[in-house]
């Protein structure tokens, strides 16, 4: 079974996807983490974030691996755990440019589809229901106000131990800029699939969002 969860930055996709995957014993695939890993690789190789050829070569050299350790997903590249690195403000500010590169997306989508074809998965990102898994049995599109997403991101930084001097207003501006880039890119822009269920998480708790998505999954299971 394939469950696709899409939506803009910090709408709560990864948080709820991890919980649902655990509840259902599905494999969780964080596609955003994969693009962030590409961005870390580009930075580590001192490449321009628009250097598609160089970034592809560097990805082949360093590799990207998702591992489950102690119930948590870890991201490795070049044999190093980069799970915290991929969440830093610098990577957040540049991942849109890297993820918009057509051949980088092509490479990641191929990897994502391969994973999804081998097991029950819950996958989150921005183009899962429209491009990566267009035939997913369940499609969810999460939205939330920019302010609430900025507050969540600031809290996430603190919980991960990531230091930042940004104010919530500056983070909100960054998120708005990211939304624009993601929804206006030429390749696989952020948009809601026609058959996706939209959930506004602004005033919902994590548990409430999880319950709504589980209800959609149960409805889909009854069809088979």
Model description:
GO terms for molecular function: ATP binding; CMP kinase activity; dCMP kinase activity. Belongs to the cytidylate kinase family. Type 1 subfamily. Its main location: cytoplasm. Helices cover 52% and strands 17% of the residues. The chain has 9 helices and 8 strands. The strands form 2 sheets. Strands 2-6-1-7-8 form a 5-stranded parallel sheet, sandwiched between helices. It has a 3-stranded antiparallel sheet with strand order 3-4-5, with helices on one face. It is globular, with a radius of gyration of 17 Å. 39% of the residues are buried. The model has no long low-confidence stretch (mean pLDDT 93).
Helix-strand blueprint:
Elements: E1 2-6, H1 13-24, E2 27-30, H2 31-44, H3 52-62, E3 65-69, E4 72-77, E5 80-81, H4 89-99, H5 102-116, E6 121-125, H6 128-132, E7 138-143, H7 146-160, H8 168-184, E8 197-200, H9 206-222
Parallel strand pairs: 1-6, 1-7, 2-6, 7-8
Antiparallel strand pairs: 3-4, 4-5
Helix pairs in contact: 1-9, 2-3, 2-4, 2-5, 7-8
Short description:
It is built from nine helices and eight strands. The chain is α/β, with parallel strands linked by helices.
What assembly state would you assign to the polypeptide chains in this entry? Answer: single chain
* Total strands: 8
Secondary-structure element order, N to C: EHEHHEEEHHEHEHHEH
N/C terminus separation: 11 Å
Percent strand: 15-25%
Give the CATH superfamily. Answer: P-loop containing nucleotide triphosphate hydrolases
CATH architecture: 3-Layer(aba) Sandwich
Tally of separate domains: 1
Q: What is the top-level CATH class?
A: Alpha Beta
Which regions contain 5 or more consecutive residues with pLDDT less than 50? none
Supply the number of helical segments. Answer: 9
Main location: cytoplasm
EC number: 2.7.4.25
InterPro entries: Cytidylate_kin, Cytidylate_kinase_dom, P-loop_NTPase
GO molecular function, one term: ATP binding
């Amino acid at each position: 079974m394939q469950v696709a969860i899409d939506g803009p930055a910090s709408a709560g996709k990864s948080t709820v996807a991890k919980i649902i995957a655990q509840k259902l014993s599905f494999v969780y695939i964080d596609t955003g983490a994969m693009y962030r890993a590409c961005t870390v690789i580009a930075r580590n190789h001192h490449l321009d974030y628009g250097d598609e050829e160089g970034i592809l070569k560097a990805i082949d050299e360093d590799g990207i691996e998702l591992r489950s350790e102690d119930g948590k997903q870890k991201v490795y590249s070049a044999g190093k755990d980069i799970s915290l690195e991929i969440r830093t403000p610098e990577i957040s500010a540049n991942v849109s440019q890297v993820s918009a590169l057509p051949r980088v997306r092509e490479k990641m989508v191929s990897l994502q589809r391969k994973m999804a074809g081998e097991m029950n998965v819950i996958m989150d990102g921005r183009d899962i229901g429209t491009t990566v898994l267009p035939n997913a049995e369940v499609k969810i599109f999460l939205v939330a106000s920019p302010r609430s997403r900025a507050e969540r991101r600031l809290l996430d930084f603190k919980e991960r131990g990531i230091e930042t001097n940004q104010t919530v207003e500056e983070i909100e501006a960054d998120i708005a800029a990211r939304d624009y880039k993601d929804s206006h890119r030429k390749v696989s822009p952020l948009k809601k699939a026609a058959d996706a269920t939209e959930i506004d998480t602004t005033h919902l708790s994590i548990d409430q969002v999880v319950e709504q998505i589980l209800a959609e999954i149960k409805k889909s299971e009854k069809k088979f």
